[in-house]
Write a structure and sequence with these properties.
heterodimer; A: about 270 residues; mainly alpha; MetI-like fold; about 0% strand; globular; B: alpha+beta; Rossmann fold; five-stranded antiparallel beta sheet
Chain lengths: ~270, ~375
Amino acid sequence: MKSKLLSAPYIVWMILFTLVPLGVVFYYAFADVNTGQFTMANLANMGTYTPIFLRSIWLSLAASAICLVIGYPVAYYISQTKPTTQRFLSMLIMLPMCMSFLLRTLAWVALLEDTGIINRLLSNFGIGPLPLIRNNGAVILGMVYNYLPYMILPLYSVMVKIDRRLIEAAQDLGCNSRQVFGKVIFPLSVPGIISGISMVFVPAVSTFYISQKLGSTGTTLIGDVIESQFKGAYNPNLGAAMSLVLMVLIFICVGIMNHFGEDNSEEGMVTI
Amino acid sequence: MSKELIRLTDLTMSFDGEQILDKINLYINDQEFLTLLGPSGCGKTTTLRIIGGFLTPDSGDVFFEGKRINDVPAHKRKINTVFQRYALFPHLDVYDNVAFGLRISKLPEDEIDRRVTEMLEIVSLRGFEDRSVTSLSGGQQQRVAIARALVNRPKVLLLDEPLGALDLRLRKDMQNELKRIQQTMGITFIYVTHDQEEALTMSDTIVVMDKGHIQQIGTPEDIYNEPKNAFVADFIGESNILDGIMLQDCLVEFFGRRFPCVDKGFAANEPVDVVIRPEDIDIVPADAGHLCGTVTSITFKGVHYDIIVDFKGFKWLIQSTDYQPVGAYIGIRLNPEDIHVMKKSEYSDMFGDYSSYSAEYDEIAEGGEDEE
């Protein structure tokens, strides 16, 4: 009874600010923009945006994969250091997160622009200007840069919990260091991989700012389109329908990923 | 009967400036059940981990079948380990845990299947193949750990307090089980424990260690009946340890009285430690006793009573099946073979007085130590 009472504020919060808005989104998605009548037209329009949905998913998957490739060795390295070093290094990883997301992305614009720092530097050697910005690569770079800590931290927290004695046990049973990694460390870190990918993929797929600043009209993401429905075009009903479809897509993607990790313990796993 | 398998010479090891092992010399025979016994921090686990290849000694050598193996990494040694608290792979089921080592050595699947099944039979875990190891009880996990190590048919099995986490009854069963497995499979067992009873029950040879030194090596009977110093006498079983003077061969004086004994080879009038086991003492009426004292406490232990008797201010522990009321004035008799004489050592005067009886008894019964 007591614990129920303690969770009451959160439940109220959830209802007011998650469930009710979700209901509103749901309502808007099925309402006509002018009359407010029930309609499927908003959802039926979705077909035209398929390429943008696919691009969003594709770019976020690429960003998640790159984050994994970069983040995994980093997380492993941190987990192997002394506890004091671990604290210091994880603080370093978190440090960029203390800086405004907008500022971090703008900084990349200043770096990558045709007249930006990198191109100006290169021009000294007679190279360039290189097309570093307003393309898919720049958008992926922005995603990787912004969301890398969300990959490293769950991986690290799973790896640091792997029992040292399991590694010794594997060595004892004949594993060289490569086999120790393949047979023990990697399988035991799968929950961290899954929650890391989820935590990068989900915000990346719905982002809009990164593609606006680092991308071009050819790299518009679904988040940008949704934003424009509420701000520029002012068709909140279409925007709501898009949000709904995006949500379902995210559920499907995360569901598939969690399915891969089903055999492993749920420890450290984030289910969204 | 059997040949030497492992030899340790002058092993020395220290962590953070603290000496853990100091010139350990030891050889282990093929098919022997050898136990490293000692209190927490005595260096027994460190010795085991050096043999397993998980630690490199600061100096000294490890020989296996006559070859120096200091630089051979753990995964290339024909040695397997049963770890403290088992270290089973949580992402694998019982079958895959046991098959782990065989798969690493790339044996054909049908042979793996045959050997795993046979091994699970030996440890009575048939039918548990597909169970997750985290769903098993402590005793079952322990048997998976043993099966996982033994299925590789190692020359040597190292066991690091494998029964420490089990309850008393299960521990007794597993002691017999381990001894049986060791004898059937003919594998050398090196066993680490702080439980003297476990060591006495299972071992062919016991190595008593303290403070990084070997205190005594011998059969369980030797260690119990002829302890080398006060530490061994106190650690293995209960002992009354008294100051005495060896007057001549087979004659020792303590408490101002001369007793015939069976020990020889001491200098005339050499100060010695005298050990008298509590179960060897016969209680007699006061007028017939060699020594007389007053009962200060009596505790029922099931098989016997623990009786504390005050002899001129020095308290003895006597174990007897006969009840003696507190305050009774009783006598004791000692036969020559009940008296064990030891040379004085750094441990003299540290043990063997039961004035602070209860505290000391509890300390010995204390379990669940954790090294490192």
